[in-house]
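Thread: Serine--pyruvate aminotransferase/ L-alanine:glyoxylate aminotransferase, structure

OP (GT): Posting the sequence first so everyone is looking at the same thing. Length is 392 residues per the record. Can we get the structure tokens written out before standup tomorrow? I want them in the notebook alongside the other entries.
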Amino acid sequence: MTASFHPPQRTLLGPGPSDVPARVLGALARPTIGHLDPLFVDLMDDIKRLLQYAFQTENALTLPISAPGSAGMEACFVNLVAPGDTVIVCQNGVFGGRMRENVERCGATAVMVEDAWGDPVSVDKVGEAFAAHPEASVLAFVHAETSTGARSDAEALCALARQHGALAIVDAVTALAGIPLAVDAWGADAVYSGTQKCLSCVPGISPVTFSERAVERIQARERPAQSWFLDMQLVMGYWGGGSKRAYHHTAPVNALYALHESLVMLQEEGLEAAHARHKRNHEALVAGLEALGLSLVVAPEWRLPQLNAVHIPEGVDDAAVRAALLTDFDLEIGAGLGALAGKAWRIGLMGHSSRERNVYVLLTALAAVLGQQGHSCDAGAAVAAARASYGA
């Protein structure tokens, strides 16, 4: 007979998922009720309100898609992009490439603006793309590129889109709750995220928000969105306001309990405090990594505090280091993707994982494993550098 699955207690310091706090896991285990139960409908309204706080928006069309962040991405594109449209897509990592695939599957033309992996999206290049393609109706870019640890200037990019009469679709999967994200103030039109990064919720849900301009575009479509499940005009029949909800799909009730709890915890801490915590732990980690003789891929002014891409030293076996950290220390870090595969590790300090204890644990474990690989480093010096960064 097959036994139940009992996972080990890992420390998740990769690109996601992040550690899920006990409060969120406890919420997940509460009794399941119906997805049209009046009490659950009340909870839906509360989740919407809390998501509006997290996104810093008053957008009425703000909701959690019942699927991972990739579905949130697809929801934005299939609702706002139609066959024959021209979309300017920025790529400075893996996820800009996925945006391009979505555009092409919608039957639209993708005009690519490409920057080196690890660099932010060039606002000047985007301006040149708009000048060359005045017919472009959408600008799509990644605010926090998970494959490189680079932040782009979302405020400037959204302003540029609006200047040219285009909608701005923003990937905020790794950004939400980790760095400032001001949807209304910046004029972002469609923003999607994920629950498993800086919200420290279980994977499988994608918060999204659409501006009034985006809703007008959706309502003016001449043909329905190509995805029935992600058609916002249908989904809003279930997630719209009021006590009467039209059945669309069976929502992941318990997962939404967990999302609600994680959003309550974010509200209790406060967005500014959460951003400051991520920054403080990032700075201590960087100080410790540099004391180990390691360097980061991204320039300091564009680094994400929640996702650190670290150059792998010459002669060090990438996979062996990650395997040893997992096997010997129950600690997960991420491999590089695309152009950074085999060249960088991705170390996450996201949400509940962004804690002072985890900084010290990682530095000590990494020093031990690198030492086994023949890379000379001093764990004591790394810990001391981190402590100095904290002011200890």
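GT: Both are above now. Quick notes for whoever picks this up: The chain has two domains: 22-267, 271-390. The CA atoms of residues 327 and 334 lie 14 Å apart.
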